[in-house]
User: Fold this.
Amino acid sequence: MLEAGCWMLDAGCWMLDAGSKNYRVRKTTYMTIIDKTGILPKLATMEKVVIELGCGSAKKVKDAIGIDQIDHDTVDIVCNLEDGLPFLPDNSVDVIYSFHLLEHLPDLGFFMAEIFRVLKPGGKKIGTVPHFSNPYYYSDYTHKAPFGLYSFCYFAHETPYRRKVLHYQKEINIKINSQKIIFYSPFKFINLFRKFYGIIFNATIFMQEFYEGSMSTILPAHELSFELEKE
Assistant:
């Protein structure tokens, strides 16, 4: 048995014993990952592969494979997500969830390319990100970039919006299935009004674009929920 914190190379695998836990650890070209539950060798035989990135101490998607850089009990794979997902094969994942993770990553273009690579054709990327009008977004020094309706359009050949943007990474082609602007306040009285705003400004795509172009500085939103699909 290894002492806690010690590493030993064994036939291409790294083994770590941390107290009473025996972790399988694989070393890639880019990073070291800890496969706590030994799930990686099973991916090819799983009927449906669902992943929650940045799941933290409580998964929002119960049966998803939890990936995070902090070793919580709910986490199946521990790794540094800033280095991407090199331990996942191409076209191997059906659905990827993340909730308020993407805004923490320093290179969104690189990470979106990784998501596109590992998703199966028709695979979904579902999640939430902070809206650029959210005043609380700027309080968190770990946030790298806010998001708006057009943020994911830069990764799509076609979008449902009137305003068109450049498509920088031609190798990535996602379809924007849906986006919803979420209005929320920690103050209950104000929150009643903001739910009403959500009904109005999400009624049509035109109203969403009208909100961002003309009303977002007056009526700030909280977050953006989205569903993307690999084409």
Summary: Residues 124-231 form one domain. The two ends are 47 Å apart (CA to CA). Confidence is low (pLDDT under 50) at residues 1-30.
